[in-house]
Amino acid sequence: MHSPSHPPLSRRHFAQRALLAAAATSAPRWAWLQTAPAQHNPFALGVASGEPAPDGMVLWTRLVPAAGEALSAQTVRWELAHDDAFRHIVQKGQATATPELGHSVHVEVQGLEPARWYHYRFMLGDAISATGRTCTAPAADAMATRLRVVFASCQRWEHGQYAAWRHVCADQPDLVLFLGDYIYESATPKNADDLPRTHSLRHARTLADYRDRYALYKSDPALQAAHALCPWVVTWDDHEVLNDYAGDHAGPGGTAEDAAAFLVRRSAAWQAFYENMPLRASSLLGTSFEHLQVYRRLAWGRLAQLHLLDDRQYRALQACRKPGSTNAGSVRPADCAELADPTRTLLGPAQEQWLDKGLADDARNQRTRWSVLAQQTLFTPRHYPSGQVGTDAWDGYPAARSRLLQSVQRHHPRNTVLLGGDIHQNYVCNVHAEASGSGPRSGSSTPIIASEFCGTSITSRAGTTQDKVDAVVRHNPHVLLARCEQRGYGVADITPQRWTTTLRVVDNVLDAQSTASTQARFVVEDGKPGPVAA
Hints:
Blueprint: H1 11-24, E1 47-53, E2 56-62, E3 74-81, E4 89-97, E5 104-109, E6 117-124, E7 127-128, E8 132-135, E9 147-152, H2 163-171, E10 175-178, H3 207-218, H4 221-229, E11 232-234, H5 256-276, E12 296-300, E13 304-308, E14 330-331, H6 349-363, E15 370-374, E16 389-390, H7 398-411, E17 416-420, E18 426-432, E19 448-454, H8 466-474, E20 479-483, E21 488-494, E22 498-506, E23 516-525, E24 528-533
Parallel strand pairs: 9-10, 10-11, 13-15, 15-17, 17-19
Antiparallel strand pairs: 1-2, 2-5, 3-4, 3-6, 6-7, 6-8, 9-21, 12-13, 14-16, 18-19, 18-20, 21-22, 22-23, 23-24
């Protein structure tokens, strides 16, 4: 990106200031938001931006009522400037924060210059929000020289402090990709002895419950600072609603009344997701929140095309899932004929066709340098020594994975990279062309057609041991690295010549001031699929 004519604060200095500002207005517990200080801060949940385009982006905030206040619709003022002192204002306007949408504000700014950084803020009465920093994408025909993306997922409140977000700020990304499980719907476990922090919210079921859960998470100063630092592009996974839900189903079995109640709950959760994320109004499909358009594309000039996927809303129920079960579990393929059903889908037919067309467009005349599939979970096969297959990730939808592999093979984009989360482990994999058979070495001798980086969690625990993960690696030659012990995020430095992924991990997830280190670094060279350790 070129420098503005009025240079703003450097990203490093802005990140330091954002952390200090967020910490000054935040406390670590949800009860803080329900107090009534002499000077109530309606912007206590911070600010955010997202969906950068060459001519604009979305600016977001959500008002917090004072304790005991029934807040009516409010007119919020906003400003966008070249500098953080707002001496050179580019645009300004007003937006209405209504109680029907949780007093959230989504301003879609247009008419800006491409590849440029800006500062923004909101005002209500005499109150002024923290200052956010955002940018526009390069022009559609521009070959950007670099892009730094942080990809992250899974940040259960009780499982750790958000030290990772402090280090994200220090790494100064241009863009954050959040790949799901922004919140967790569950209550604090009864035995909280080993938890670094807890909350008093009940298991989320209603719109008010989900709104409160987002407010809890967004009260964290490190997360607020990361949102204020640069634009975010977000998708969801299951915990924004309910663990391991699939499409219209909470799980197998249940009565018609149970099914109807789940759809009401899901709509409430999806509304809260929209209210609390910097999404465009075009993601709204009607007014009932029975559907939300989450899969979409974002271009960074000709350097990268980001295909954001939704693997929850349209998926088939997990294969051979037991009635009444609260999680998907695993099966033996020989005992589950449903697993091999060629009609089963993870993305849904419409999204599959949309993605196929997008990959074809990327490949046409090799216009796009890097085709990025930003989705929720591990894509490449994970064969366990036990012979079991997990049914909630792509392993549970082998026909759908085959169709996507065939799409990549058929269109042959110049460079294809898959990003994922969900499993709370760092995996780096070669993605091979499809081959017949389902054994641990099936496909390992076929050509490598893409690269995969599936990231660990911000805080959420792995639920396994490194010895078990090592046994999986020995059984899967396409897996180049698999680590489960540490929490963190990935940093992708993208240039026309190469893609470099750095896996960053915090040294103590229980400590908000924890240091961080680099676990591993891999490089993908232009035109040479497959990560190589650096």
